[in-house]
Amino acid sequence: MDALTASFFLSFGVIFVAELGDKSQLMALTFATRYRALPVLVGITLATAVVHAVSVGVGYSLGETIPTAWISLVAALAFFGFAGWTLRGDSLSEDEEQKARRAKRSAVVAVSLAFFLAELGDKTMLATITLATQHGWLGTWLGSTVGMVVADAIAIVIGQQLGRRLPERAIRYGASALFAVFGVWLLVEVIIQLR
């Protein structure tokens, strides 16, 4: 498997898991109860592509200047942090929920702006930065963007078709465990590199 494909699939998997139960997935579900699925998905895709391009730029720049073993150590600690963050859970603030329900402009613009603002400093943005420090920028950007859009598309389908919430507890525990596994994996890489 070439480096582009590997970074795509790794980024896709990590961000897909990070997005499960995240507040932006809850926003997608909320928007899907008000707007048609396609404009919501387009808005999410536009915002995600921009935020993750910035994230990859930051991460890739850091990866070029800092030794790999130290990046792996910081990445492992970050993934343990993501595990804790995911386990704690995420919810929409009243303000975020009202914005999702009251948007008067076109659905694409409303969703794009809401998602762009919600993703700044979010765990998926931080995870994308972390991944880009060690993997190719294009595969990381494409994989993280597609991973997030697919996870949010699931919320859109659920929001429009079922009108029920995902079993949050199971998703939180599963996603948290996967982040911890990624953290352990990176720690093992650090130990091997520092030998």
Count the E strands: 0
- The number of helical runs is 9
Average pLDDT level = 78
Q: Assign an overall shape.
A: globular
Helix/strand/pairing class, anyone? mainly alpha
Order of helices and strands: HHHHHHHHH
Termini Cα gap: 27 Å
**What summary fits the major beta sheet?**
none
Poorly predicted ranges (pLDDT <50, ≥5 residues)? Answer: none
Query: How much of the polypeptide forms β-strand, as a percent range?
Result: under 5%
Report the radius of gyration as a whole number of Å: 17 Å
Percent helix: over 70%
How would you describe this protein?
- The structure is a single chain.
- The chain is mainly α and 195 residues long.
- The chain is built from nine helices and no strands.
- The protein is globular.
- The two termini are 27 Å apart.
- The relative contact order is 0.25.
- The mean pLDDT is 78.
